[in-house]
Predict the 3D structure of the following.
Amino acid sequence: MDQKDIIRRTAEHVRDRLSGDTTGHDWWHIERVRALARRLGREEGADLFVVELAALLHDIADWKFHDGDLEAGPREAAAWLEECGVEKRAIDEVCTIIGSLSFKGAQVPTPMATLAGQVVQDADRLDALGAMGIARAFAYGGHQKREIHNPDIAPESHRSFEAYQSSGSTTINHFHEKLLLLADRMNTGAARRLAAGRHSYMRSFLERFQKEWGGEL
Ligand code: ADP
Ligand code: NI
């Protein structure tokens, strides 16, 4: 199989697995991340084969739905890519990217070694911002049975992955615990520019939310 066929077959495989998901990790999230990652990857000069495979496979077995197992995603991705006959070097890079992509708490660094990985991480994080990010946050919060907002519960700044993972906080708190921190954590200049607009859109949403909550508007 040539690279184009591998990407086409991988896209079909992922679409079969994730279509119909209602947690915000559905096939359309993957499509958006893939398109953004390609765009950023072209601008930054990254290896587009690795970028596209990692974008397509990054949520194939998310730790959030596999008892916190960070290896579930890389394991499934590797098995699939071996079946497609992808060379070992590319498989290793894709799996390293998938294993290090996720946000793990406000005070937990998530370094990404290669440019391809930085681009995919930026694309995934951009899809957690802006109008898209707001929609996904409430979809995920509802799925996890979290409250929309509770003024008695303050946001936290998590120091460890374990603390972040076990937090059952509200969805509004998730904006303060993660989403509003992402614009400053973009790896590439191209993503930083896109993140700025999405960040300020979320800020206006939160301001308005507070005003409506207090009956001011
Ligand atoms: P990551 O790789 O950083 O975990 P994902 O691509 O899996 O990112 O997407 C995370 C999505 O799930 C985001 O849109 C985010 O808003 C949502 N999400 C994750 N945790 C929560 C939470 N505790 N409350 C609300 N939404 C959440
Ligand atoms: Ni994702």
User: Anything to note?
Assistant: The CA atoms of residues 110 and 179 lie 15 Å apart. The first helix runs from residue 3 to 18. The chain has ten helices and no strands. The mean pLDDT is 96.
